Amino acid sequence: MMQFSLKRSRLAIVLTFLALTTCAEPTQEPAPPRPLASLVDQTLWTQVPPEIDPFALPGPTPPCLPEAIQLGELFGGEPALSVASEQCGFVSFSQPLLEPVRAGDPINLRLWHFDLIAPEPSEAVLGLALGDEIQWNTTIPIPSSSGLIATTFTATTAAPAGTPIIFHLHNHGQNSYHLLEISVGDWGL
């Protein structure tokens, strides 16, 4: 009787194992890396009105003078959105996404700034939104040496092509910023 019970237990274990391994959901292969694609055209940026700006502060902000903004300016051989902050200290720019973004996609941003100075210590704030969903923001201490910000972050929401992409800059002092790239996909570094 003991031998029959032991055989039965072994059979139950084998049948349970087979049931679990054959009925389990198949594992999903990870998606292949997304090819690199630009999300913006550096000549298409327009200023975002404060009433629809997800980065807006309470109260009025001084307008940016047109000569403070250069669209598609060549910077190191690449077209850039260039902003001289002494005439434009708080601004958000928008344009329609050129490519769709899926939640979980890697978003790449490259921005160069020259030495950051101000009459007293402060910080610059940079941000990026898809529609009204802020996806990324960072601060840079002022004063700071010149430098390149090259970062990748993960999109938290999906956005079809044509959705507004918003780049934000809030600065104190007389500084210069050059947005070089906003892209989706694997940088392949």
Topology overview:
Blueprint lengths: L1 H22 L13 E2 L7 E2 L21 E7 L2 E7 L5 E7 L9 E8 L8 E9 L2 E10 L4 E8 L9 E7 L5 E9 L5
Antiparallel strand pairs: 1-11, 2-5, 3-4, 4-11, 5-10, 6-9, 6-11, 7-8, 7-10
Question: How would you describe this structure to a colleague?
Answer:
There is one protein chain. Helix content is 12%, strand content 40%. The chain has 189 residues and is mostly beta strands. Strands 1, 3, 4, 6, 9 and 11 form a 6-stranded antiparallel β-sheet that branches. The chain is globular and about 60 Å long. The model has no long low-confidence stretch (mean pLDDT 87).
List key phrases describing it.
189 residues, mainly beta, Jelly Rolls, six-stranded antiparallel sheet, five-stranded antiparallel sheet, 1 helix, globular
CATH class: Mainly Beta
Measured as a percent range, the helix fraction is 10-25%
SSE topology string: HEEEEEEEEEEE
CATH architecture: Sandwich
The biggest beta sheet is recorded as: 6 strands, antiparallel
Alpha-beta content class: mainly beta
Q: Looking at CATH, which topology would you report?
A: Jelly Rolls
Discrete helix count: 1
Tell me what portion of residues adopts beta-strand conformation.
Answer: 35-45%
**Gross geometry:** globular
| Full CATH superfamily name | Galactose-binding domain-like
Quick recap of the structure?
The chain is 12% helix and 40% strand. With 189 residues, it is mainly beta.
